[in-house]
Every structure is written in C-alpha cells, then in structure tokens.
Hints:
Blueprint: H1 2-40, E1 57-60, E2 66-70, H2 87-97, H3 109-121, H4 132-140, H5 150-170, H6 173-183, H7 193-201, H8 210-217, H9 232-248, H10 254-262, H11 265-279, H12 285-302, H13 306-315, E3 319-322, H14 326-336, E4 346-356, E5 362-366, H15 367-376, H16 388-402, E6 408-419, E7 421-428, E8 433-438, H17 463-475, E9 484-487, E10 490-492, E11 495-497, E12 506-509, H18 510-515, H19 519-530, H20 532-541, H21 567-578, E13 582-584, E14 589-593, E15 599-602, E16 607-609, H22 613-625, E17 653-658, E18 665-670, E19 674-681, H23 694-706, E20 721-727, E21 748-754, E22 766-772, E23 786-792
Amino acid sequence: MAGRIFNNLRLFLKGFIPTLLIAAAVLMIIGAGIIYKIVREAPDIENYDFRPQGFASILYDCDGRETERLVMAGSNREEAVYEEIPEDLINAFIAVEDNSFWNNKGIDIKGIIRGAKGVVTGDSSAGGGSTITQQLIKNTVFQGGMEKTFGDRVKRKIQEWYLAVSLTKVMDKKVIMTNYLNTINLGSNTLGVKVAARRYFNKELKDLTLSECTVLAGITKNPSRLNPITGAEANRERRLKILDHMLSFHMISESEYKEAVKDHVYDRIQEVNRQVESDSHKYTYFTDEVIKQVENKLVSDLGYSETEAKNMVYGGGLSIYTTQDSKIQQIADQEINNPDNYSETLWDMEYRLSVKQNDGLTVHYSESDVEKFFTEKGGNSKNLYSEAEEINIMIKEFKEHVIKEGDQIAGEYLSCIPQPQISFVLIEQSTGHVKALCGGRGEKQGNRTLNRATDTLRQPGSTFKVLTSFAPALDTGKASLATVYYDGPYRVGDKSFRNWYNNFTGYANIREGIVYSMNIVAVRCLMETVSPDLGISYAEKLGIHTLTENDHYASAALGGLTDGVSNLELTAAYAAIANKGIYTEPVLFTKVTDHNGRILLENKPKSYRALKETTSFLLTDALSDGMKSSKRFSNVSVNSLGVKANLPFISCGGKSGTTTSNKDIWFVGFTPYYTAGIWSGNDKNQVISGETSFHKNIWRKIMEQVHNDKKDIGFPVPKGIVSIPICRKSGKLALDDTCENDPRGTAVYNEYFVQGTEPKEQCDRHIKAEVCTDSGKLAGPYCVNRQSKVFLMIDEKEGSSDDTQYDLPGECAEKHGQEPENSPITELSPNPEKESSFPEYSE
Length: 843
C-alpha cells in the first residue's frame, strides 16, 4: 500500500515539477517584459538638472479673486554649494538615510530587502529601502512620488531604481548629495538645508554645529511630526539615534557625541522661531483652516503621506478655490477687531524667558512663573491686566528678581493678548460653504496658531437646549411646541436644577422654553420626553463630533458637556435648522487643481436629512420669536434673549447661550441666507467682566452689513403645518370664555402643529369658580356677594411656582365663624425648600 502511494506521488511530482518550472519561467518572462516596458517608459534623466523646483500655490475666494499665496521659504531658491555644507551635516544624513551612499551604485539591495522586511513585519524601525540618490529622483523627477494607486507607486518605484543607477553613472556623488540637500522638505515651509539653517537657527549653513546638523537630518523622514518647533520631542529621539549611528560609523568622536547630546538646541530653536513668527507674513485664520483641510483631503482621499501633502500645498503650484466671500470676511474682521465693540478689554500674556546663569545652567521661565511671583506678593491673581503696559512693568520687576549678577538672557518672548477673545463663523446654509471665519481678535501671532473657531472646545450653554431637548422631542413626534412642562424646582438624582433668572413660572411650553431659554423646561423635556441617549444622538446627527459617553446625562440639555463644542460645528448644526432640516458638512474649499490645471480634489460637502422639514420650521419659528420683543410672563423680569441681535429688516432666528459665571457667551442665529455663530470668553476661562451682551451687538452689526442688499424672502410655511388657537398653560384647545380671562392676561395664542398632532381635547387646566368678594375665597353657601373668576388647576405633585398665586383659594365661611368647608379642589401649599438652596445656573 505504502509503495503504491509513493509510486503515485513520484509520478505526480515527475509531471508537476516541470509544469511548475515552466509556469515560473513564463511568469519571469512576463514579469521581465512588464519591467522592461516600465523602464522604457521612464523619464529621460537628461531632461532634468535635479536642482530644486517648486511653484507657489494660490488661494482664490468664491468670486475667483486671489486672496493668498502659499510659498515655501525654500522657494526663494538660495542654493548651497557643496563646499559650504558642513561635513557633519552630510555625515548625519548619510548615517540615517543611506550609510552606503559613497559606495553604492544608486540603489542598495540590502536596504531594499530591509525595507521590504519592515513593511511585511510592520517594523518601522527596520529602515527604508531608498538611497539618497533615489530620494533625489523621487523629489525632482516624480515630484515627491504622489501617485494615487498602488500600481502607479510600484511603477514609479521600478523607474526610480532604474534612474538611480543611471544617474550614478553620469553624475558625481558630491553633486547628487548637494542637489539632494537643496531639494528636501525640512518643515516649517522650508525647502533645502540652507533655508532651514536660517529658519531654525538664524545661521548660515557653514556655521551649523554637530548638534544642529543632526536636528536637520532628523526632520526629513516626516517634516510634520519631526518638526523641531512643534514636534521637538519626536525630533529629539531621532536626533539621538542619528548621533548613535554617527558614533558607531566613526564619523564623530566620543567627546563630540557627549557634547552634542548635552546641547540645549531646542531652546535656541524656540527663541529663533518666536522672532521669525513675529516678523513673517501671517496667513489669516480662514487660510490656516483651508490649508489644514486640503492637507487632510490629500491624505485621506488620494493616499498621500503627510509630507507629500504638505509639499503639494506649499510647493506644488496648486490652485485652491475657497468658499470665502472676501467682502463678508472684511466686514467680520473689522467688527471683531473694533475695540469700541467691547464693553471692557483686559490683557493676558504669553511669556518665555531663558536665563543662562553664571554657573552655566540655563533656567526657563513662563508667564505662570511671573504670575506666581506677583500672587505671592499679594498682586493680581486673575491673570488679566487692565493695560498692556502693566504687563511690561511686571516683566521688568520679575526679571530684576530672577536675573542675578553674571547671568545672561539667552532668549525672551512676550505677547500681550486682548481679552475676552472671540470667534465668528458664517455659513451659507444652502451649500455648506463657509463664507467667513475669524479665530480670534488682536494681532495674529503666527501661522497655524490657535484657531478659536475650529480648534477650541468651549461649553455651549443654552444653545444646546435646541439640539438635545427640543429638536428630538419635536422630530420624533413625542411633543409639540405647545407641550407643557411645570417650571418649578426640579431634581435629577442628587442634582438640582433652577432657571438662570432665579425664578419659576409654573406651566410653560416648549416655545416659551426656547424664547426665554428656560432651564427647567429643557431638562424636563430631555428627561421625561426625549431621554439623554436620544438627545445626544440628535446632536451627533447635527454634526457635533466632540461628545463623549459621559455626556449622556440631564446636564446635556443645558450644554454641560465633558469637552465642549467648536464654533464651526455648532454653527453648522444651526445651519441645518435654517436649511429645512438638511445638514451639510461645512467646507472651506470647493476644488483643488494642480500646476497644469488638472483637478486633484473636488470637495463636495456631504449632505443628509437630520430633521424633518416640519421640525425645522417649528424650531425656526420659535427661534424667530426669540429675537422679538415679547413678554408673556408678568413674573419674569426678562425679555426674549435674542432681542439685541435682532435684524428688523429681514427674517431671522437665533439662540443665545451663557455658561455659569459668564465664562462663555454665545449667539448662533440665521436668516434665509446665512447662519452665523459668535463665541466670546477669556482664553484661560476667567469670568467675563463688564456687560455681557456685546457679542450679540457684534453679531447684529456684521449681519446688518452682510444683508443690506438682500431681499427678505422669509421662512415659508411648509406643507403639513397647521395653526390653531390653544391655551399655553395646558397645550390644549383654548376655552374662549375661560382661557381668555387668565388672571395674567389671555393664555390663548395661535400655535403651529404638524398636521395630525394638533390637540383635540379642550383645556382642563383653567376653570371658572365663584369667589366671595368680601373674603376673596371660594364662595360658600352663605356668601351673598359673589363674583365669577378664572383659576388654574395645579397638580399636587408639582413644586412651587408663581402659578400658585392664582391657584384656587380655600372656601369662605368667615361670616358664620365656621372652619372652611372642604373644597373639591385643594389649594397647594408652597414647596418648603428655599430657592437659595439651589445652585446657580446660567442661561
């Protein structure tokens, strides 16, 4: 049996192995043919001089006007010659990028195998397979190697190997090295080592130290992550690895190694950077965000690396067509930066001081050290100052305290920042196009700095009531604008809630909850009708991406969030309400073309229905009501909270938001054309002092100018909406002869409903009863003088409110000296808890 199996296997292999060998040979022939074809299609290196090339990228506004040019500092094209390049710099790049550079033929077989192994095993430390010659060809012939598909990348790599071998035959190694060092991307908008030496060290190339050379060599693998300004720690790790390689390759001595390791090179880089940023052209906040979005799209949509994307944006000659309206942006910038628009301007500081002490030790100080010094002296502990000059005086005194005889200032930086800060976003809701964006007020300190409109997360306050409570309640059909909640003391677990106006109003509906920003109505709506999970899901559906598991609680109704929201996302959420319930992802550019006019990116925003059109209309109408002068409570000494932002000549709606102690103030509103959100607060979260409605005035001033030539087309009533008279205390059909005679004034008004959800029952909360005019109590059987009055029925389970002031009194029996007889409706006693026992809540 075993022999027969062995014999069959022998016969099988006898026939299979030749077949396998033939197949392998055929595949090799086919593969060779493919490779030959790819090589034949390779560019002719004679057409390239391998010197640095690059083109400025241009940004255009929505009308096609040029607004900005993005040019790498290396585009100035100050090329270095080989003789001025330090030997340490050349050796640093060889040690980390291509240790066989002087001996290889343009490619390194061991390096290719090592790189392939790293890809297969996922070990990024295995090293890359590209020689310096290959990288030069990639950067020049193939413009950074920005292929869109895997097949194209394989084709480019094969051609790259071929051209590297070819180039080595015709070009001196010193020339290859010089061209390579002149063309590489070294971050911070620099191309080439000569420009990078000035950018990071304010030195000529020939004057770089060993330590500084290794910093530059450490950048090129990933110019964004390894940038010595913004990624100092990552660069430091790579720099130490380079020094280790240089020592092991006997490029430097042990003493040189130790001296370089001890060097505080990154302190010098930061000092130079502050000076460069203060002297250089600064892009606008809008441009900063466009650059970020384009780079992200090149990475996510086209598969470019972060480095390749940055190369394209700053040196690829792109045409970037933005959504910015320059006229609107100019209006917004002028109003945001007008000091007269602020009730009070204080000043904060950003400070850095490096002192080289007499003993050789360098000590670093920041604004926190200055503030601590003066706080211990009994000075300002709020970190805000009335005048910028006050900060200069403090800095002078602090320096006198810390700088001793023999010490030297190694570096110093001071920036005075006006407070409160502000951000503004304006979106065309029908398209999702961001027309204007301001990330702060005052002089911008640099490029890609803190953008308070997109990068900063702040608590949204009552603007979130609409997103988490009222929108889902209406959209799911679980409630209408007329749905009533009892506005009285309310507790969820151990947490007590109260209103921002320190009062309770009794029965109030969702419309009133929006108009007067009623905390209790919002919280009860979320907890009793919606649920926190559903409320958070609606906020996410409306484009809020910063929510966490810890936000699924009652406080989400009032904007009490773990991390907060950005102005851009919050404004986009309200734009969905203004856009008939269609959420459109906000975008800042529409398309990007390359240097030859070919389209690289088309940025069509994602759109989907987030709310029913009828829901959107109901919210829009209530938010419009919130911007009109309208009082419905005689016991609430406030008006509608959007009045100061109202635009009397065009339809508008909006919602304000204020967090506890006025640390964040918001207003997000819209017209038939645009949705705009404004935030203000102090960068370090201090309480805003002075009047806190200035942001609404700024919003109004901007929107008035933006709409001065716009026709008011209103907010049309969609199909499926009906209007009927109801009682606002019950949310049911009004009793003309009863609800009209509410003691506070008529409780009857016309409310909009989705057809089919309008109430069918009559009001059961107002009743008529006869009162004894002598005692003011319910008329008993012995009362002669009687008067018919209207009273409000209050459920016994509800807490106290001002509604109890016109609940039914007891029955009159005084004329006969008898105790009051039991009334069929019992007067409610006030809640014994005092209002002062509740924590403060802001609008």
